[in-house]
Design brief:
With about 475 residues, this protein is of the alpha/beta class. It folds into two domains: about 40-265 and about 365-465, 3-Layer(aba) Sandwich (Rossmann fold), CATH 3.40.50; about 270-340, no CATH class. It contains 15 helices and 16 strands. The protein has helices at about 45, 55-60, 65-70, 130-140, 165-170, 170-175, 205-210, 230-240, 260-265, 275-285, 285-295, 345-350, 365-390, 395-405, 435-450; strands at about 40, 95, 100, 105-115, 120-125, 195-200, 250, 270, 305-310, 310-315, 330, 335, 360-365, 390-395, 410, 415. The chain is globular. The model is unreliable at about 1-25 (pLDDT under 50).
Amino acid sequence: MKTRNLIYIVLLPLLFTTCKPVVDDFTPSSGSADFTSFVAIGNSLTAGYAAGALYKSGQEVSFARIIAQQMAYAGGNGQFKIPLMPTEDGVGIAEVTETGMVLRTKLVLGYSKDCLGETSLGPVPANPDPDQQKLFTELTTSVAAQGPFNNVAVPGIKVTHLFAPGLGMMNPFYGRFATDPVNDRLIDEPAKVNPTFFSFWIGNNDVLDYAASGGLLPLTPVDGGIGTGFQASYEAALEIIMKVVSKGIVANIPDVTSIPFFTTVPYNAIVLTNQDDVDLLNQAYAPYNQLMEVNKLPYRINWELGPNPMVIWDKDMPLPQPFAQYKFRQAKEGELILLTVPQDSLKCARWGTAKPIPDVYSLTETEIGNIKTATDQFNAIIKENADANGLAFIDVNALLNKLKSQGIMQDGVFFTAAFVTGNFFSEDGIHMSPQGNAMVANFFIQAINTKYNANIPQVSVTDYSPLILP
């Protein structure tokens, strides 16, 4: 059985400290629950997607599988089937590029050279030039014959997707394990393993898709019918699941703006050290400032020595129609620049200074407000349904906010929301590292034990790997 012990703290550079394991003495039990057959429903976070891809070892250390392994000590049958990917490089969600749809492998930490010829350490593709046909084959080859599966989480899905017949034709991560991709609904998968306990963590993408697109993709509306609105879809999903299994745990949606994908690049990353550069930029933006002043509009773009806010496009700027082409301004403190912003474009193509950063790479205060409103509304619905159905509940939103504001110590490892050095997040800045999955599994286990008077043993996060430096 995995036990708690003090192993190491991961920083740059990597430091190691070891000591003997400390075993918690207690008798495992299921309490009022039955852990014989555990099924996990959700999206990429539950599936074990990490470092920008779904890959075999990532799936094997998903928080759901860790919970299943620990449930085996408290009455579980020890079986937790996963629709495993065939390789370690894995396959990520397809990206749209100038040449069309491209599949990527997972990210690893490695060295790369930028447009200035400078070498730095950061996430790089495990395979920078993968065979697209090979990746497509890996992603679309059916593993349905190996099922039914206990982990039926699917990367990329929203709560509204659970009811869509033919989801497997639109989302290959489901299509590869659906028995009939043309007609099957994901919401019907849990019943196939005759579950006695379930986890249900969904809704992240209902907010994240909007946030990760810089506010260009829509938020899921609260209202609307099943398959359209969040509330009706969430309630209907729980109703279907609980016709088969009456006990389980649900989790809410974290504040996506607390994760490193949105917090790593500072809004004022333009550092000017030469007065000539300051003067040239101020001269270039003098006509913009004059236009705004003449028309009694509040926007100005000014430059000075030291850190300066980036210039960003803002589609929501309330400008009169004749001035629509001027919907750009300097970012405000608290606004966010996405991790996906091309660094070479910032360094060598004058993005953020002479050229505004496109909408897709930033979140304005208006968009951040939309995210907060949706997150609060969705989380209220999740909590109400957890209480109404007598289910265990885990407040992941509070967990992530604590991770960001003060950090969390577990088994001698200090977790924060920092990119790469914070231990919790994987190389994509969104999904969890193996140690992050272990920590989340422990919080799920705590909530299950409390609700059902059970004694599922927790794991030591130090038994799971940190991010690997080259």
